[in-house]
Amino acid sequence: MDPGATHQRLTDRKRVAIVDAAIEEFLAAGYDATSMDRIAARAHVSKRTVYNHFPGKEALFAAILHQLWDASQRGHALTYRADKPLRAQLLDLLGRKLRLLNDESFLSLARVAIAAGIHSPERARDMVARLGEREEDLTVWVRAAVADGRLKIDDPLFAALQLQALVKAFAFWPQVTMGQAPLGEREQRKVAESAADMFLARYA
């Protein structure tokens, strides 16, 4: 057996244990009360091991949110297709986003992040910057459709955020701030269809 491969598997297992422990800590204690010491203890690893994987609490929290996002993206990547109707492509993209926003773990961690950001606007800006380090699939799709001449948009990032806002008004903010139940499948479809139709009526 390759010693390097065995070491890598152990390292990967420790990283998973750290992330799982961090999620539990953030949800149980909130952002401010969670420390790298508490995460290390819950993960049954040394504090040094935690820092070997993550330079700080902010990076660890951002990694968790990225992991939840990645979990919602399982399956084939939804890239722009010139041969497929825009509405059908948009509905696929929005359906994927709505599944993430329907995930209770994601919503719980979003509440933690928002509470942390209220007490520290600088920290909130840092979290948003970390999450924006890579472009979202929706923005990439909008840019591709614009480049193909099928959407008329001067600012693709603004338009993508506008579209997300239409969805989050029903499937994120009421759940995070007012404890409303996540949307059912029929409600998700209604939100996705109305958002896609409004977006295409303006930009197609």
Describe this structure in words.
The chain is mainly alpha-helical. It has 2 domains: 1-54, Arc Repressor Mutant, subunit A; 58-203, Tetracycline Repressor, domain 2 (Orthogonal Bundle), CATH 1.10.357.10. The protein is 75% helix and 0% strand. It contains 11 helices and no strands. It has helices spanning 3-29, 36-43, 47-53, 57-72, 86-101, 104-119, 121-131, 137-147, 156-171, 173-178, 185-203. Helix 6 crosses helix 7 and helix 8 (137-147) packs across helix 9 (156-171). The chain starts with a helix and ends with a helix. The relative contact order is 0.11.
Question: Would you summarize the structure shown here?
Answer:
It contains eleven helices and no strands. The chain has about 200 residues and is mainly alpha-helical.
State the helical fraction: over 70%
* Radius of gyration of CA atoms, rounded to a whole number: 19 Å
Query: CATH superfamily name of the largest domain?
Result: Tetracycline Repressor, domain 2
Tally of helical runs:
11
What is the CATH top level name of the largest domain?
Mainly Alpha
Task: Specify the overall morphology.
Answer: globular
What structural class do helix, strand and pairing data support? mainly alpha
CATH hierarchy: architecture of the largest domain: Orthogonal Bundle
N-to-C CA distance: 57 Å
What composes the largest sheet?
Answer: none
Write down the domain tally: 2
Low-confidence stretches: none
Number of strands: 0
Order of helices and strands: HHHHHHHHHHH
Strand content: under 5%
CATH fold descriptor of the largest domain: Tetracycline Repressor, domain 2
Kindly report the average pLDDT value. 86
